[in-house]
Amino acid sequence: MTSELAAGLKSGILQAYLDDPLSDPNFFDITHDLLLGSSSTSSDVNGSAQELQTAWERLLLSLCFFHAVVSERKSYGPIGWNIPYSFNQSDLKISIHQLREFIVEYRQVPYDALTYLVGESNYGGKVTDQRDRRCLLSILKSYLNPTVLDSKYKFGNVATFSQKLTYNEYLTSIKNLPDVQTAVMFDMHENADIARELKETKSLIDNITLVYGNQLRNENSATANAPSETRENSRGSGQDMVGDLGGETRLEAVKEATEAEDPDIAMCTSLVHKLLPLFDMKMAKEKYPVKYSDSLNTVLVQELQRYNNLNAEMRSSLDSLVKASKGLIILSSELEDLSQSVRSNRIPQLWMDKSYPSLKSLSNYVDDLRERLLFFQKWLDDGPPGTFWLSGFFFTQAFLTACMQNYARNNSCPIDTLHFQFKVTDKDSYEEGGSDGSVYVNGLFINGCQWDRSSSTLKDSDPRVLFQKMPAIILQPSGKQPTDNQDSHNLSNSANHGINSGHIYQCPLYRTAERRGVLSTTGHSTNFLMMIDLPSEREPSFWINRGVALVCQLED
Questions:
Q1: What secondary structure does DSSP assign to 383-407, as a single string?
Q2: 346: which of 141, 237, 341, 401 fits an S-S bond (Cβ 3.0–4.6 Å)?
């Protein structure tokens, strides 16, 4: 027997108080256990016991809020957690038992020990993404600290609780919490509610499309199995229209009528026309040979080859689908999946196996691919650009490593001692490249907040603006070791405006807005690229809780 987890912040907290062990009066009241074995005077013992009882009740409530918050954040998609985790009541119960044990045995609240056990073991043991772990610990620190004992402390940013309440009064206060949860309760911007609703809507539309696609597939199968007379009658109108024509003109008319009747042929023809010709790899290798002092030549040739492989696969599969639609070859399972994907405006799995990560629809994916091909064609024809479109790289890590390698070789220093310094500029692109090994990159978007160009710092998003395009960013390889004060190794954006930002937020950069990827051998997600230092007037924990991140490409 099991019970379904309560949905919603309010229901989750209420369920925790109604379940074992909090529903047990002897467990909820620790005064008796505190008085046992004490050698102090009765007045001192009673006073200390009451203080510890109050601390126990406040921290207990705080743990229940924490559990409800981390459990419900997954409903907000990637801005909540990169990977949706299934935290359960067992995680909360063991944390509650540990809290009680510490207070009863040691007559104090060891916040550091509790933070480690709850954040690194009980809950953190399930968290595999390093950025999610950082967020989890940041949230936990806001619920496990001495300020929670203050009666003015707002739990979940929505409610305060008196210090001296009975068990039933706690239940009453919890029931008075807002029925509708908002992003503010999770330390996130109100725009996160829009992201959650979009996520739910997309899931609904995908399910409807899946059902409709199955129905359409069954109808096509029934049509294919129909008697030959029926199929001939369906084509009769097209043949009658061209029956009076002769010779080559008639064949062209029949071809056009056939394409008009078969949507696969028309869509495949449209997609092929959007693609650019394959890159001339022989010319690329001659114009950009392998050079010790310029690793970007190697990166360019490798990128061209990857895009050629994808381009060739798309052309070949679309040509095969056209032939299968005309009855010239057998319609295999892969071609059938390709047909259904094209009709549903989804990227076929056959292409994704050789493609870069993308969450776009098929039409936008082809447009995006065309822009990438044009970017590398211009690089191939005119030389390296002044500003590199970071989102356009098939394998972005190779470009970043090449920038480091160029700097290391030109300055005779070991590459493993280098790291990037960052500076956000006030322009979207530059015609001339950087100096001293630095490079300009653009094409990034920030989610969860926005970049204020006037003060060169992070600030809250405008209402109903989920993503904002970032200006060009300077990546400067440096051999200086980072210090504990992050401000000292960041290229000062605020110095030009006379503003002291005071804090640096290490913002993660992802390839797609999904943020989720496969854990690689490096210990990072395959979707994760690097951390970029951004100046801020707020504490980094403020942006961590809001799930602020940079992404290379959006959905549609």
A1: -S-SEEEGGG-SSHHHHHHHHHHHH
A2: 341
Does domain 387-553 match CATH 3.30.160.20? Answer: no
Residue written as token pair 């979707």: 527
For 514-539, b where at least 16 C-beta lie within 10 A, e where not — what string?
Answer: bbbbeeeeeebbebbbbbbbbbbbbe
The rounded distance, in Å, linking the Cα atoms of 493 and 99 is 44
**Are 118 and 110 within 8 A, CB to CB?**
no
Structural domain boundaries of the chain? 9-188, 233-261, 263-383, 387-553
Strands 445-447 and 467-469: antiparallel
Q: What is the value of pTM for the model shown?
A: 0.86
C-alpha neighbours within 13 Å on the C-beta side of residue 343? 20
Residue 435 pLDDT = 82
Helix or strand holding residue 445 (H, E)? strand 445-447
Task: Give the torsion sign (CA, 61, 64, 70, 74).
Answer: negative
Residue 133, CA atoms < 13 Å, CB-side half-sphere: 15
List pLDDT tens digits, range 205-248: 888 877 776 565 556 555 544 554 544 444 444 444 444 545 55
Asked whether 295 and 279 are in contact (CB, 8 A), the reply is no
Q: Please, which residues have CB within 8 angstroms of residue 252's CB and are 6 or more apart in sequence?
A: none
For domain 9-188, give the fold.
Helicase, Ruva Protein; domain 3 (1.10.8)
Give dist(CA 345, CA 363) in Å, integer. 7
Tokens of 373: 């091909």
Dihedral sign for Cα 524, 525, 526, 530, please.
negative
Token output for 334: 């892969």
Cα–Cα distance between 156 and 172 in angstroms, integer? Answer: 17
The residue assigned the tokens 């505190």 is 34
Interhelix angle 263-274/296-325, nearest 10 degrees? 160
CATH of 263-383, one of 2.60.40, 1.10.3470, 1.20.1630, 1.20.1270: 1.20.1270
Give yes or no for a contact between 77 and 57, defined as CB atoms under 8 angstroms apart: no
- Residues 484 and 176: their CA atoms lie apart, in Å, by 44
Q: Name the strands in the sheet holding 445-447, side by side, starting at the edge strand that comes first in the sequence.
A: 450-452, 457-459, 528-536, 503-512, 549-553, 445-447, 467-469
Judge whether 44 and 160 are in contact, CB under 8 Å: no
Chain Cα centroid distance, residue 312: 30
Instruction: Name the band, by pLDDT with cuts 50, 70 and 90, for residue 543.
Output: very high
Query: Does an H or E element contain 142, and which?
Result: helix 130-143
Secondary element (H or E) of residue 70: helix 42-72
Give the C-alpha separation, 415 to 408, whole Å.
5
